[in-house]
Backbone:
């Protein structure tokens, strides 16, 4: 990876074009990971996995076994997990993977943060040490929220599926999370791999810039609108992504459908949704009725009154946790790892794609309508009936919305 100049050259001097040959939509984790694991077991050259959550469990054990088997066959295997999202990974899987020689890394581990602060602290320069600590703290809040499974460079799976038993129908039964993913075959674009390499080589907390990251940004800036890939890397690309969403929502003519587990929109995004509804667009937002992060769910309710009064329809998914992320704006559809919250829009590494095949778009639309049947619609009357302590907590959490 240190001498991967050919990959950089291919990306930098290749114009964005058709990025893959075929795609498949997934709504069930068992189907998704069945195909991922099958591809890993048949892999010949490389396996690169980047995931926010890698939890100990049956699925985690199956993934580890498949990766170890591929490694023993001579396949180049790399596994990257987030330091906040996967707190138990190192203790549970680290010794086994390390003993086998399989390469894995923890993205921006907090123990690294604290040790760096301690080792760099200078009593004779307390102000400079404090400035360094604040810079590292701020960069450490940028997490790797992607979920991408890359096999032999031309087979890629992305979406909302982490390596967790909560995504398996077979393991969790009726309490399984509701997710969406997409599998891409015949992938020609090298951006997915370069994005993985940029995160893999992330030198935090010692230096905040790197050749891979800059090369990725340079390529993605070539044709933001024409490319079907939305890879957020760095401030510029996140800003472009936000501007694109705002432009599309503000110019929407028929519909804006949102399916997201974490809804903490920025001010401009909230206003764009309100304006669309007032113009007569069909604005529907599906949010979790039961969230795995209750604080975010409480915060989301602060935005309900403005949306409902403007004519937006808000639905809360019932019975199980909603974790899928899909956005419909007229015919344009986005699937991936991004939520409509502050972290995804301004902080975290994300990967999203725009499905191109008609059958994919139809499947996503059918599933959205099916999800509506499992929802309870919110109303102003119900909001007014909320107890005082509920409204109070929502207001408190709202003021700390940029912290989670």
Residues:
């Amino acid at each position: 990876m240190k001498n991967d100049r050919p990959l950089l050259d291919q990306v930098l001097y290749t114009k964005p074009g058709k990025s893959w040959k075929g795609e498949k939509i997934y709504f069930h984790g068992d189907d998704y990971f069945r195909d991922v694991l099958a591809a890993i077991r048949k892999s010949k050259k490389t396996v690169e996995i980047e995931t926010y959550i890698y939890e100990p469990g049956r699925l985690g054990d199956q993934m580890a076994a498949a990766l170890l088997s591929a490694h023993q066959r001579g396949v180049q295997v790399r596994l990257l997990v987030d330091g906040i999202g996967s707190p138990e990974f190192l203790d549970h899987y680290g010794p086994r993977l390390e003993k086998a020689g399989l390469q894995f890394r923890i993205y921006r581990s907090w123990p690294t943060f604290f040790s760096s602060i301690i080792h760099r602290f200078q009593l004779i320069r307390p102000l400079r040490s404090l400035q360094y600590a604040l810079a590292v703290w701020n960069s450490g809040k940028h997490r790797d929220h992607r979920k991408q499974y890359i096999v032999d460079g031309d087979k890629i799976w992305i979406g909302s599926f982490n390596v967790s038993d909560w995504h398996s129908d077979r393991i969790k039964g009726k309490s399984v999370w509701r997710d969406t993913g997409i599998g891409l075959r015949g992938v020609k674009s090298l951006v997915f791999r370069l994005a993985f390499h940029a995160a893999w080589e992330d030198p935090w907390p010692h230096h905040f810039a790197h050749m891979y990251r800059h090369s990725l940004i340079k390529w993605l800036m070539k044709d933001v609108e024409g490319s079907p890939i939305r890879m957020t890397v760095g401030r510029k690309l996140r800003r472009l992504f936000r501007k694109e969403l705002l432009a599309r929502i503000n110019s929407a003519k028929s519909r804006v459908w949102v399916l997201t587990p974490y809804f903490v929109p920025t001010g401009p995004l909230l206003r764009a949704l309100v304006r669309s509804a007032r113009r007569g667009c069909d604005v529907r937002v599906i949010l979790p009725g039961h969230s795995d992060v209750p604080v975010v769910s409480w915060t989301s309710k602060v935005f309900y009154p403005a949306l409902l009064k403007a004519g937006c329809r808000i639905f809360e998914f019932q019975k199980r946790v909603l974790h899928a992320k899909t956005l419909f704006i007229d015919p344009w559809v986005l699937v991936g790892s991004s939520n409509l919250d502050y972290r995804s829009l301004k902080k975290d590494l994300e990967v999203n794609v725009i499905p191109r095949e008609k059958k994919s778009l139809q499947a996503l639309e059918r599933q959205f309508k099916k999800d509506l049947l499992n929802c309870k619609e919110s109303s102003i009357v119900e909001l007014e009936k909320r107890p005082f302590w509920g409204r109070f907590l929502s207001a408190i959490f709202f003021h700390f919305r940029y912290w989670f």
Remarks:
- Residues 233-403 form a domain with the Endonuclease; Chain A fold (CATH 3.30.870.10).
- The chain has two domains: 5-200, 233-403.
- The two ends are 33 Å apart (CA to CA).
- The first strand starts at residue 22 and ends at 26.
